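seq:
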Amino acid sequence: MSDEPREDRARPTEGMPPKVPWAAEMVWEAPWADAPGWTEERRLLALSFALAVRKTGSLMNLMSQAAAERIGINATDLGCLNILSFSGSMTAGELARATGLTTASITGVVDRLEAAGFVSRERDPADRRRVVITIAMEKAVSEVATLFAPMVAEWQELVVDYSDDQLRLIVEFYDQMEEVIRKHLARLREQPPPPDAT
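struct:
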């Protein structure tokens, strides 16, 4: 891997602020994209950054939904399976905390994933009261990972010429984004549902 930075990817076209379709509009991102002392270019960069994050999140949700439909499970179940794949096995309580879902919801998720052959339930040999959910890795790789493999390969191509420092910055950014998303996922899950409008 080359340590020379990819200037064409690291920043917008030289001398030109990025273009956003609603630069003069009042949008969700506008309140924090108008800090005192910011130049117009900095403001547009901040708006473009927020838009890029939203676009990526929306497209990944759509990708997950499309993949779930192809696999024959729902998007929530696929998300839980993805979380489970990071460690290979978790208890229902651990999976509930990791996803922000209730234990009752997780029970339904695991029931469906087990019926589809993606996970199994096993007693913890160290504590027979605990039930451990274990991913069926071979099935997950053959039926799930293969759907995402072409996209992952293109991600690797995108960063092949990035410097080590640029990649570290990207990884640090995603680590920080994970913490922020987990924080606000918990916030939304903990909020009481809105009162019935009817």
